[in-house]
UniProtKB/TrEMBL annotation:
CDD domains (alphabetical): LuxR_C_like (cd06170)
Record-annotated HTH luxR-type domain positions: 178-244
Gene source species: Sedimentitalea xiamensis
Swiss-Prot/TrEMBL keywords: DNA-binding, Transcription, Transcription regulation
Top-level lineage group: Bacteria
Pfam families listed in its UniProt record: Autoind_bind, GerE
UniProt-recorded name of the protein: LuxR family transcriptional regulator
Annotated Gene3D superfamilies: Transcription factor LuxR-like, autoinducer-binding domain, Winged helix-like DNA-binding domain superfamily/Winged helix DNA-binding domain
InterPro entries attached to this UniProt entry: Sig_transdc_resp-reg_C-effctor (IPR016032), TF_LuxR_autoind-bd_dom (IPR005143), TF_LuxR_autoind-bd_dom_sf (IPR036693), Tscrpt_reg_LuxR_C (IPR000792), WH-like_DNA-bd_sf (IPR036388)
Length: 251
């Protein structure tokens, strides 16, 4: 898709299932065939929060994600550390420059070696503007196997502004769409019960409104808390709202 066509598509996308595959295909036309998008609302000075609370979108292999994300390598990734301290687009060239200068830590070298085994060797990282000190979003654009950083830098020199704009718009759209972490989505009844709680209704009120018993309403709320890995219903309402899982249109 050309830039205008792409922007129209993204602005009208109704789900991540619609947007993300199209975005990965669009980036592949520029040579970036493997992407990881990440966003957190639980950043602190020493942590990015629970990985299970991250919004993660990727087309990397399960083996790569298992090591990079679930194995905790992401926390020491040089370009992630760069993204936390900067906003904008950064070439991976700086990783190799720091390596040559001996400026990478042992943990960062381990990440570089892991990436080499998976042929993740050239690319760009875009760090998105943050509106809160607790939020941070970034996307890693990995070049196809065999492409050099010199080739990718040349592509960026020609198309970088458009690529950056496309990713910024995709990021802003992603923040508005419902996101359900794996195995933690809400059922229609659980979501409806949380929505009524968000409207200030009591359990008895919700039972009447949903045509259920109070015990059944409590069951839906308990299962919602379990699905969202929180202790209280108030926390469940907040987390569901942050992931845009409440007050959504049915497909």
């Amino acid at each position: 898709m050309k830039l205008r066509e792409y922007l129209h598509f993204v602005s009208n996308s109704q789900s991540l299932e619609e947007l993300w595959p199209a975005h990965t295909r669009q980036m592949e036309t520029f040579g970036f065939d493997r992407l990881i998008y990440g966003f957190t609302r639980f950043r602190t000075e020493t942590s990015l929060g629970d990985p299970e609370d991250f919004t993660i979108l990727t087309n990397h292999s399960p083996e790569y994600i298992d090591g990079f994300l679930h194995g905790g390598l992401y926390f020491h990734a040089p370009m992630l550390r760069w993204a936390l301290d900067n906003e904008g687009a950064g070439s991976w060239r700086q990783i190799y420059e720091k390596f040559d200068l001996g400026a990478l830590t042992a943990e960062q070298i381990k990440v570089v070696q892991f990436n080499l085994t998976h042929k993740v060797t050239a690319g760009y990282t875009i760090s998105f503007n943050s509106v809160s000190p607790r939020s941070k979003g970034a996307i890693s654009l990995a070049a196809g196997p065999g492409m050099s950083q010199e080739e990718i830098d040349a592509i960026w020199d020609e198309h970088g502004e458009d690529i950056h704009l496309m990713n910024n718009v995709a990021h802003l759209k992603i923040l508005t769409l419902p996101y359900s972490p794996p195995n933690r989505g809400l059922t229609k009844r659980q979501r409806e019960a949380l929505e009524w709680v968000g409207d200030g209704k009591t359990t008895q009120d919700i039972a009447i409104l949903m045509g259920l018993t109070a015990a059944t309403v409590e069951k839906h709320l308990r299962l919602a808390r379990d699905s969202l890995s929180v202790e209280t219903t108030a926390q469940a309402v907040l987390k569901a709202a942050l992931h845009n899982q409440m007050f959504i249109m049915e497909a």
